[in-house]
Predict the structure.
Amino acid sequence: MAEFTTAVFQNEFLPDGGTDVNAIVTISCKGAGTAGQSGSGDAGEIIIVDTSGSMGPATMAAAKDAAQAAIGEIVDGTWFAVIAGADRAMLAYPPVTSGPALVQMNPQTRQEAQASIGRFVGSGGTAISTWLDLAGQVFASVPQVTQRHVLLLTDGENRERPGRLDEAINRATGYFQADCRGAGTDWQVAEIRRISQALLGTVDIIPRPDQMRAQFQEIMRASMARGVADAKLRVWTPQGSQVLFVRQVAPTLEDLTDRGVSVNPLTRDFPTGAWADESRDYHVAIRVAAKALGQEQLAARVQLALGENVVTQGLVKATWSNNSELTTRIDKQVAHYTGQTELAAAIQEGLAAKAAGDEATATTKLGRAVQLAAETGNDEATAKLKKVVDVQNEADGTVRLKRAVDKADEMALDTASTKTTRVRPAGS
Amino acid sequence: MTETPAAAAAESPCGSCGAGVPAGSRFCESCGTPVADAPAPLQPPSAVPSEDHALGDAPISAPTRRPHDALPDPLPDPGRRPCGTCGGEVGPDLYCLSCGTKAPSERDHFREAPATWVAGVCDKGPKKSRNEDAMALLAGEQPGSRAVLVVLDGVSNLVDSDVASLAGARAARDVLRTPLPAGMGTPQSRDAAVTQVLTAAAAAANTAIVAITDPDEPNPASATFTAAVLEGTRITTAQLGDSRAYWFPDGGTAVQLTVDDSVAQQQIASGVAKEVAETGEYAHAITKWLGRDAQDVVPSVAFHDVDGPGWLLACSDGLWNYASEPDALAAQIAAAGPVGPGELALALVAFASAAGGHDNITASLARVGPLPAVPPPPPPVQNAGVTAAVPAPPAPPVVPGEGAPTDG
């Protein structure tokens, strides 16, 4: 049985008249087990491979190989299917036209699925909304599957009328999770990130075909390790208070604020998807009515709920004090993640400005990003930034845009912008 | 236990929430309110007391049964506790489920209201880390019939003084459940019998305190003891240490009913000015107490007959430190306005908290006669239609500079 623990990092002391409470709540899971085997329902996996005409021979070969390797990682007993995506989606495996469209993994189905992937040929366009919709229908055909995960690979820009993809994303939101990968550099980071963020998954670039197999295996292994299906972050706040924001801040940055579903007038549930043995950090900011000096009050109960079952709880508090030594301290974790959030925004805004030809804004934003990455110890961001800008002074954030930038490096910086680092332990 | 199988099967409504409470229960299963009425039936006195005695049907001698146990009563299960700030429910994490206000623990702040005319508040106070005061109340349903106020003040910084004081208060209350004895007919005989009962109550409290004290503990728990029993027009007090009982007749001169067993009191007796003695170095050194190292646990018993309406107060020094003179306390009662005993107790605790609040604060009150300047509190009526016609009790007055009473 999975065990959950919670730790709260905050400075609970507010000055006289202070109203805003910030806290980092770390929720950790141990003993998650394997997907579909925790007794809360079966697990389902769908692999969607882009089979549009834009997939070059090398990319297609690598994609087939990677999808076959991913199939190899799916644990026996897991329900699965393979979808080939072009300007419409086709169920490549299992070969059925009605009834249950998922089969359970065993040596025979594994071999059959890998064989059907081997027959993929690239042709046609890219209509990702149809891929997502078919995945939803396939999952729905086997009701005992309650933990639903999709691995989606594409190499090109979506060619549909505007809005169609967003409608499909809305239909899928809350129903299945999706990890998305883009092959090469002809796809749009912002577009695919919309899918992965709404569907509680990750997005990344696979610049070279030979990197694909390892990535797919890793994604599928991670998905198989998620033994806890569909957990929700439940946030209670006192009467008369206001939730300023709720963000996941580690391992990646996701703003959950607008995704809350009301449980009762004081409580909202935010989706977190399935959990493996891992820990995630959440930044909650609550505005409460100021109380008299010396008073203590609860600003939030932050819980993790499995169904209606609350498995762990952290308390975010507020205590009003006139001791300025206490009230002016900013919690290290809160400061760190505030910096990481600004870093992500600076990178994304800087790259957008650069793409739009606004070099002045791009230079300022990316300079600030370099500064923040150094301050918060985000070495990955620093390394990726250095491929896009020449750093003149890291501490001041003075940079110059590189003249010749590899498109893949720019996209890698963009996809990695929401990856955060944790606070370094003291002394390291 | 004294209950019979027949009695155990019977249910009576809880005084707080109205849920059925099996006879013999100490707490309501629904709301956790302590059940005031004991397994031993508490008989309200006849409406007209006999000529020389408040209770015509009182037993002749002291009860012979021993307190049924010397162990501390468990604290009531928090259950559904109302929030002191917004009236919402306090969650298991001790914060209100509606407004998030931190609730004091059940030991740090508790109230008892055994009848409409008797109530008390026992509060940790803003400056103390734990509540070593304790209180145990009893009352007959009929206003002015019979009330027992027991207040113990655990001596600071001794091990388990908070547990000991509560155990002692409840043990003494158990002894005082039955009406005080009438004696053999003469006032002397009656007073001797009553003194014996109150001495037994103090002894029971002492037994309870000693029972929870580790025999090897070099700093054994100890506590003061003040019991005030009102029966009809007579108040009987028993005293060890420096908690106090007062009588505040409406419009009359307030009286302190007990004499402190303290160094300060000895100095006053030898001519030192009261205000000097009570603020001196040994102001709070007591000369009698309950506990394993107590030399003398025989209380001073005193009698006071009342001839009109007023308030009986039993309190700890956390209250009277800020208004030692009876008139000063009477002024605080007057300032609270015409309120019921529960609101008045909260107002007095709020007064002491605001005045400094350096100690735990306990205030327990019994009302004799109707409330001043408001319609008399209605006798308990079963008819809901009649109840609805009774005007709601007035809101507690806002005393300038005071915080919410429940925050202590």
Remarks:
- Chain A touches chain B through 18 residues (CB under 8 Å).
